[in-house]
Amino acid sequence: MNSFIIRSFVRRSGRVTLAQQRALETLWPRYGVPASQTSLDLQELFGRTAAKHLEIGFGMGDTLVNMAKTHPEYDYLGIDVYRPGVGRLLLQLEANQLSNVRVFCADAVEVLQYQLTVSSLDNVYLFFPDPWPRKRHHKRRLVQPEFIQLLAQRMKAGGYLYLATDWQDYAQQMLSVLETSPDFINSVATGGFAPSAAPVERPLTKFEQRGLRLGNKVWNLLYQRQ
């Protein structure tokens, strides 16, 4: 396929704690997946046959760990570029002795393009991606037709794509992009936003819990790969 570039993130430096740095040095060989342009065999990566779920932009890792603990029968991939978050996730994986998570510290577009193969993913989660609120930056938003097409190629038929945002105009953009995609069908009969208690379980992120306490609204979208 033709390559494309979405500058969908700012590589925030942040302060890496000593514990997080230790995790990046000692736990990465166990849980981390190096960025490359070589495709992965996910069954071999995890050493078993199981449904493969991907969270794009896991932040500090709380939701990913929650899902992996709740569903040990599934395998989880997490992608993020925020090193303190990657370090914290590695610490959580060790503390909970989780063997069903692997971690990428890389650009999600490049991981999808080069390392993940066609029809290799069952479910994909994209919770609270950078909204790029300024209009002139909207082109940097991750949810664009080209990206959704790439996701569709990597997902199995029947799999779910679950998105959430607390920015209304980004929610409308997500809805517009997905409603015009030939590869996905809205799980909501009316073709609108999904209820918070959707058919696919989604634990609340700490970011979301804080926003809800402040009265912020969250828009959920749930689409199934055709």
UniProtKB/TrEMBL annotation:
It comes from the Bacteria. PROSITE patterns: SAM_MT_TRMB (PS51625). Keywords: Methyltransferase, S-adenosyl-L-methionine, Transferase, tRNA processing. The keyword Calcium does not apply. Substrate binds at D166, T205, K206, F207, E208. Catalyzes the formation of N(7)-methylguanine at position 46 (m7G46) in tRNA. S-adenosyl-L-methionine binds at E55, D80, D107, D130. SUPFAM superfamilies: S-adenosyl-L-methionine-dependent methyltransferases. It comes from Thioploca ingrica. Pfam families: Methyltransf_4 (PF02390). It catalyses: guanosine(46) in tRNA + S-adenosyl-L-methionine = N(7)-methylguanosine(46) in tRNA + S-adenosyl-L-homocysteine. Its EC number is 2.1.1.33. One of its GO terms (cellular component) is tRNA methyltransferase complex. The gene is trmB. Belongs to the class I-like SAM-binding methyltransferase superfamily. TrmB family. Pathway: tRNA modification; N(7)-methylguanine-tRNA biosynthesis. GO terms for molecular function: tRNA (guanine(46)-N7)-methyltransferase activity. This is tRNA (guanine-N(7)-)-methyltransferase. The lineage of its organism: Bacteria, Pseudomonadati, Pseudomonadota, Gammaproteobacteria, Thiotrichales.
